[in-house]
Amino acid sequence: MLMAPHHARSSTSATVLMVLVAAAVVVGGAAAAASGKKKPVVPAVIVFGDSTVDTGNNNVIGTVLKSNFPPYGRDLQGGATGRFCNGRLPPDFVSEALGLPPLVPAYLDPAYGIEDFATGVVFASAGSGLDNATASVLAVIPMWKEVEYFKEYQRRLAKHAGRARARHIVANAVYVVSVGTNDFLENYYLLVTGRFLQFTVAEYQDFLVARAAEFLTAIYRLGARRVTFAGLSAIGCVPLERTLNLLGGGGCNEEYNQVARDYNVKVKAMIARLRAELRGYRLAYINVCNDKSPLTCDDADKYFFWDSFHPTEKINRFFAKGTTAVSLSLLR
Ligand SMILES: *[C@@H]1O[C@H](CO)[C@@H](O)[C@H](O)[C@H]1NC(C)=O
């Protein structure tokens, strides 16, 4: 369902991009110093979530949701790695900007071992969500299982590098979490799991935010401290939804965008609460949209989307700037 690349006329607002640029510029000096061949500023980048950050885990699991074939990876050395993009994903750019490898390997990729994962690892799985039911739609890795892999990773890391070093890596790594879109687009609004009967959309937002809080608390208890959690983008503007929005003349689905904005407000409040509750937790919300200018999707940029769901590398690089800047701010 998500496989055919097409360059739909879409969707982000120039304002969104400018806000991210502004955020990047604030810490721009530090970001520049961190990039290049210098000593890494953190020991590792550790990633959880869905296709926005899955670098290849779905290649080796029994799901139809894969992207390890051309034209995916068209502009990537190594070709179609399982990234849902023509090139690299945000965690790859974040890793490179922090002085770590330019590609963050997928935990289940047999081509990599614990020595590689010691500087960066991705547990994310395309199609996953905060709701267990979302991962079940396409038989992908649910978030609780990503956490189980994280525990296993820590055991392997301790064996490989020693307990103290493993603890250092886990405590000082930057964590990138990006998940949530599928809970709405592949689950709630696809009407496949019954969630739409069980919850109003506001109740479902609350349910997802509670799951996110559980997840963020679980990785805190496992030692994570510097964590970025991305909000939702303009989910009503992905090409698939625009195509389905026949009544709206193929424009963005504004109802979905409003749901994303409301959800983001709740996520921000949850993050503020966790920061207050969990000592030493440097948890930051990543704003993928601009709240003030509500996602005007008229400034179509045909290069925004690579397939019916996923942005191009150019946009991923852009998202990564904001995440890198916020990550650096968490180190202070
Ligand atoms: C999701 O599934 C896991 C594993 O079965 C379970 O521990 C957890 O309680 C479930 N979460 C919810 C909200 O049902």
UniProtKB/TrEMBL annotation:
One of its GO terms (molecular function) is hydrolase activity, acting on ester bonds. InterPro entries: GDSL, GDSL_lipolytic_enzyme, SGNH_hydro_sf, SGNH_plant_lipase-like. Keywords: Signal. Residues 1-32 form the signal peptide. Gene3D superfamilies: SGNH hydrolase (3.40.50.1110). It holds the Pfam family Lipase_GDSL. Belongs to the 'GDSL' lipolytic enzyme family. PANTHER family: GDSL ESTERASE/LIPASE EXL3, OS06G0636700 PROTEIN. This is GDSL esterase/lipase. It comes from Triticum turgidum subsp. durum. The lineage of its organism: Eukaryota, Viridiplantae, Streptophyta, Embryophyta, Tracheophyta.
